[in-house]
Amino acid sequence: MEPKTEPRRRDRAATRAALLDAARIRFAAQGFDGTGLREIAAEVGVDPALVSRYFGSKKGLYAEAMRMEIPTGVAADPHRPVVSIADALLHDVVYQDWSRYGGEHPLLAMLRSAGHDDVRDQLRAQLCDGYLREFADRLDGPDAHLRAELIGALLLGLGVLRSVIGTPAVSAAPFDRTRVLAARMVGALT
């Protein structure tokens, strides 16, 4: 008589994390429409039904996989000047190695799928409730929200030019040179 073998138990947290990692890379590279749950499940070695059980739907998986937050500590000090926060975001978002997201910040990857109302709403909420609100809350004077969005557009534009389009000057520019020029533009808006 052969001994009974216990079925292998799956580590729920590790499986969930692996699914999120696989989804981040696929969504970043292929966009929302070009990514299928079966592909993500196959990459992790699980049944596609498990993906649905953990995340509810492709939209649920996308929302969680592509969720972004202001990097830890960037806005912790309520008195930190906007120029300093923008400099930190330039370093931590635009110049950071985002290899786990296919080489770019999730915000930039989300732009590829912004034609979907749900994705666009998630992107808008994350930008407006995160980065842009932090800027606007620190700006005095008229047009604080408009100036905050202009600063956001500068950072987003730099990220797109550097990691999506790959323009020669921005892609080749070292962080130290870019930060000086970006600080001048942000300073003018603050």
Automatic annotation (TrEMBL):
**Residue ranges of DNA binding:** 36-55
Which Pfam families does the record cross-reference, listed alphabetically? TetR_C_16, TetR_N
Q: Which UniProt keywords apply?
A: DNA-binding
Q: Which GO terms describe its molecular function?
A: DNA-binding transcription factor activity; transcription cis-regulatory region binding
Could you name the domain of life of the organism this protein comes from?
Answer: Bacteria
Q: For the HTH tetR-type domain, which residue ranges apply?
A: 13-73
Q: Which PANTHER family match?
A: HTH-TYPE TRANSCRIPTIONAL REGULATOR RUTR, TRANSCRIPTIONAL REGULATORY PROTEIN
Q: What is this protein called?
A: TetR family transcriptional regulator
Q: Which organism is it from?
A: Nocardia alba
